[in-house]
Structures are given as C-alpha cells and as structure tokens.
Amino acid sequence: MGKAKAKAKQTKGKIKESAGSAMDDRRMQAEGTADRMSGKAEETVAKAGDKMKRSSGKH
Questions:
Q1: Is the pTM of this model over 0.85?
Q2: Which residues contact 13 (CB under 8 A, 6 or more apart)?
Q3: Using an 8 Å Cβ cutoff, are 22 and 43 in contact?
Q4: Distance between CA atoms of 39 and 33, rounded to whole angstroms?
Q5: What Cα–Cα distance (Å) separates residue 1 from each residue in 44, 57, 59?
Q6: 15-57: per-residue pLDDT in tens?
Q7: How far apart (Å, rounded) are the C-alpha atoms in residues 42 and 25?
Q8: Can you tell me the distance from the alpha carbon of 54 to that of 34, in angstroms, rounded to the nearest whole number?
Q9: Helix (H, G, I), strand (E, B) or coil at 8
Q10: By C-alpha distance, which of 16, 13, 3 is closest to 42?
Q11: Burial letters 5-39, b for 16+ CB under 10 A, else e
C-alpha cells in the first residue's frame, strides 16, 4: 500500500473514532483506532521501502 492510501486510512480511522465518541459507541471508536494504527504502520512500511529504493540507487 502506498503512502497516500495509508494516510487516507489514518484519516478514516480518526473520523470513525470521533463519530464513535460522539455517539458513545465504543466498538466504532475501537475500529477507528485500529484503522488509524494500521494506516500508520502501512505508512511506515511505505517510507522504509522508499528509503531502500533511494539507497540502493546510490551504489
């Protein structure tokens, strides 16, 4: 997954968390937190891949 999709997943998670909080829906909040954290992990992986591509091109 690319960085843009990972960021979108994080945003979706934040919205879900906020909606769950507003509606006092703990399950929705938890799903939002999971989406947000998953998006952060995917973004980290994408960034690491980009760094590896850049460093391998310098050799």
A1: no
A2: 31, 32, 33, 34, 35, 36, 37, 38, 39
A3: no
A4: 10
A5: 11, 21, 26
A6: 999 999 999 999 999 999 999 999 999 999 999 998 998 888 7
A7: 26
A8: 30
A9: helix
A10: 3
A11: ebeebbeebeebbeebeeeeeeebbebbeebbeeb
